[in-house]
Specification:
4 copies of one chain form a homotetramer. Chain A is an alpha/beta fold. Chain A is about 30% helix and about 30% strand. Chain A has helices at about 40-45, 115-130, 145-155, 165-175, 190-195, 210-220, 245-250, 260-275, 295-305, and strands at about 1-10, 10-20, 25-35, 60-70, 80-85, 95-100, 100-105, 135-140, 160-165, 180-185, 200-205, 220-230, 240, 250-255, 285-290, 310-315. In chain A, strands 3, 4, 5, 6, 7, 15 and 16 form a 7-stranded mixed sheet that branches. In chain A, α2 packs across α3 (about 145-155) and α2 (about 115-130) packs across α8 (about 260-275). The two termini of chain A are about 15 Å apart. The interface of A and B includes residues 215, 234, 250 and 258 of A. β13 (about 240) of chain C pairs antiparallel with β13 of chain D, so a sheet runs across the interface.
Chain lengths: ~325, ~325, ~325, ~325
């Protein structure tokens, strides 16, 4: 038997005993070390998701250690440290997962081996296909915006301008290497961008908020024929665009969302190569750690986003 | 002296005498054979364009014969038949134009050598970067939609599905080679596309109307990770998009608009290569021809769009 | 029991009785209608391949009718006409094959549903990423060169210039739509290309022979920054290149060879979409048909390449 | 009058007095601060270039300060520090150059503003279109190899493996950030690459020597469907390639050479953006500085390549 967190009602995770998962011939059994709390799970926890049936078993940002391998599995052995891709049941002591969805974690601390959200950011940035010395604007300096910023900075940009409304987020972005941070409550982002790019506008801009106002702002900071990359998830109704102007500016609009498994795997592989080789580290982004029996607190904190909060994770090992 | 049409007031072209244009060392003098009437000029003629000062000299879809070449010009000689790029003053007997903006017309009838609008369509289709056997939807079967259709059909698509509300436009699209035409007043385009693509949706869809309803429709006919190409000019206020869904579907949104001169030249060169080699013909698209002194009628007809109308042109030669 | 052709010694196929193949849950059983003879199999038949162990069971260009489906198979049912990808054992009455390696053949005659070689040509041409109105040179007008030509012509080229040394091959290329054919024994290909391209050279050139002389010729017919696509298989030692010149000309050299299964499947899917929609037909390329018990004659003919020969296939059904 | 270095015979530069260059309306007059010695000029100096007529005026890696601007020039003013593109006459106190060939040098020391060779390296690396976490091999750790290495490292690679035969070059590559350096006299590069890439081979390999042996080696260190980028200039006869194997491996072979002026300008602009923003510095690469009257020594040193030598430049200002 093992422990697993089940959401039984809004805001009510309960830690249950459940049978150990059994593995198929192409799967491995992983003892979970950590499982990140994803923003997309907060609505479920708060009871805002329609059509959710209880008990519900979220958790998909898993890392851990291989305990057992199926008879058809090559390339993994018990004791291997891995980041894995599962779609649920991740807030548990053990998961069974296809070997092809596992990636070596090398010496990366397992609570920092957040391969799944990193894969999203990798794929978004690769889709933008940056060129050397591009000027880049990132609107939204939360966890996803931070990941995008780190990956953009790995690709030889000239200026990286980060905009947000939270002073602590902007301070973190600055510390992470932004050329310039802009508190849009106090400064005009278009004016800053115009000044820093010789009046031209950004080559590429990323929107990582999911809200209307920043979306509209993208059109005012991007150069003609530049790229507008939508990373945020725009829930809550229609979005308005001044399409006559956006069309006249010949923007390439990239929806940085991915659902094909091979693409997700590509992003996870790339992200883990960057982490394991030390080119990238997430140690300044995982700010809050909780034990499995504190999972309701972990979710509450992720909803509250106290100052300094970026990402919380459930740490399974004692 | 030569004749030139000047717009002196809304709906009032007057044909004036004007001095012959003088050429610079890098220019050629072209005796105009024909100059197409562009949809973008209709608002000006109708008095709907703000900020227009009279007299106004439109006309930018010019073809003709080289009469004289500047002393720095290589590659062109008097007598050469050419399609040229000018930005105005085209409804005239002569234009002076840089030699690098001229393209050989070969044996193409000059009233069919519509290089400038063809360049727009070429660049739109190239931006879409079609793959062999793509399923393509084109919404809007006017002149631009027709050009896009012809170019798409040159690139090895599987299905080409054309939607419009005008029976004569759909009949023409069918005759031009559409796999299937859909009168959206009577049929559901999404259902037709779904059926013809095995439930998947189009690989690429082109919107060539500039209106909200067809724009919205694009999202319902395009496959996940497919391309949505906006060719129409979306004037008249904001456009609404269900961005949460479009983002979830990972559409690549391409604004097929171009303002850089090298790109326009690329499109003109490509278009004229297709016309002069016989791969492409526009003889079914130029439906109405007028003499210079009938120019007000030509514009009125282009506004009225009578049944069977696609494109009108001013033919300068007697 | 079923019939299958086994190569028991050089030039000695024998038709044997063998047990019917059994299918796995993800496989289908296909009654073979036809299996093409591939050039790569001729060396084996002639005893020129080192390391071949007998009996050997070639045959990988299979089409037929689904007879039985495994319990995990969706999307196929008995009676479906399909083109399939197998790697051997294709000269037989039945093959077992994964359902995901099967593609609907629609109404295409099964002896013309040559999906596997078509996939090679599709992938080669897609890798070349042609632009509208490109000038294209194809050296080698055998079966692969013909497939490349047909696919190039589907993509809106300006000139398609085909070179070979066999009058019947050139005549066929001309009939298939080449703008110009060149017998390199009598004419200078570089001079013809120069004249037809205004002195510039071809945008893309394909080499489909596998020999040194045509390879060298590629550099003399391609424009600066143009694409040199190597389709032929260059066996028999090193090849010499004037790399200083090729580098100075900034050629992009594309090795059009593919071994990843997803890419092969992509090519098969695309090819079958073109065949089933009628955009493409191979009926002028399959010139020789033989029954299974005539398989040695089929191979001998493919080696001899008599006048008018392009491709031979083994037709299984009576 | 001004000073300019003229090559009057092999190994004999003479510093002459010459009239000040006069500028055209679209040009600027630049007081030269430094002009780098390019490897391509060494053959000329040594008398190995055929067809050279004396006096010859080399020098094309120029930086300096704007002294005067033509009347049509916008965007530059006297006093502006710039890197410029000229094709010759650069070892002089002044050059006249089109304003569009000038790029702001910001605060970069002018002897380190080597925009022209940097443009070559930028364009080579951009053509390779690296992906995040690529494993990269660079053969040849001279000046061009070093520039490529610096630019590759700006783009988020996983491993950067540099091979050469000179211990000082390898030490420098290591100091510049190579993951691993390989002295090919003592170690097997293919074995090192195999080990570091999990047996797969490099995603991208750059050849920066221009010699046969390293060229051949590229095929042994690159993964299937990987990119082989030829940066070196392969003079001195034909090159041999095992094309059967390279074709089977589906290598994409990129000739990283450029002659179109817009592409050169793109590379210069990108390079200068990287230098002026501090993302890139060449201060460890310019190892030897000489005054104009020491120009023969500068060239002799560049031929001798003493230990520690990377690049020499002529510094014009006192």
């Amino acid at each position: 038997m093992m422990k697993i967190a089940a959401l039984r009602a809004p805001r009510e995770f309960e830690v249950l005993d459940a049978p150990m998962p059994e593995i198929q011939p192409d799967e491995v059994l992983v003892r979970v070390a950590a499982c990140g709390v994803c923003t997309s799970e907060l609505d479920q926890w708060q009871g805002k998701s329609s059509g959710l049936s209880y008990p519900h078993f979220p958790g998909h940002e898993v890392s851990g250690v291989v305990i057992e391998v199926g008879k058809e599995v090559h390339g993994f052995a018990p004791g291997d440290r891995v980041a894995v891709w599962v779609t649920n049941h991740g807030f548990a002591e053990y998961v069974a997962v296809k070997a092809e969805y596992c990636f070596p974690a090398g010496d990366v601390p397992l609570d920092l081996a957040l391969a799944e959200p990193l894969a999203c950011a990798v794929n978004a940035v690769e889709l933008a296909n940056l060129s050397l010395s591009d000027d880049v604007v990132i609107i939204g300096a939360g966890f996803m915006g931070n990941l995008v910023q780190k990956l953009v900075q790995l690709q030889g940009p000239r200026h990286v301008i980060v905009a947000d409304t939270r002073p602590d987020a902007l301070e973190r972005a600055k510390k992470m290497g932004a050329t310039r941070v802009v508190d849009v409550r106090n400064e005009s982002l278009p004016e800053v961008v115009k000044e820093m790019t010789g009046g031209q506008g950004a080559d590429v801009s990323f929107e990582a908020t999911g809200a209307q106002t920043p979306l509209t702002l993208m059109g005012d900071v991007t150069r003609m024929s530049g790229k507008v990359v939508i990373v945020g998830f725009h829930q809550g109704g229609m979005r308005e665009l001044p399409l006559a102007y956006w069309n006249w500016m010949a923007f390439q609009i990239i929806n940085a969302h991915f659902r094909e498994i091979p693409i997700i795997m590509h992003g996870m592989r790339t992200g883990m190569r960057l982490l394991t080789s030390g080119r990238l580290s997430l140690d300044d982004l995982v700010t809050h750690r909780y034990h499995l029996n504190e999972i309701n607190t972990a979710f509450q904190t992720a909803c509250d986003k106290p100052e300094g909060f970026v990402k919380s994770t459930i740490v399974m090992e004692s």
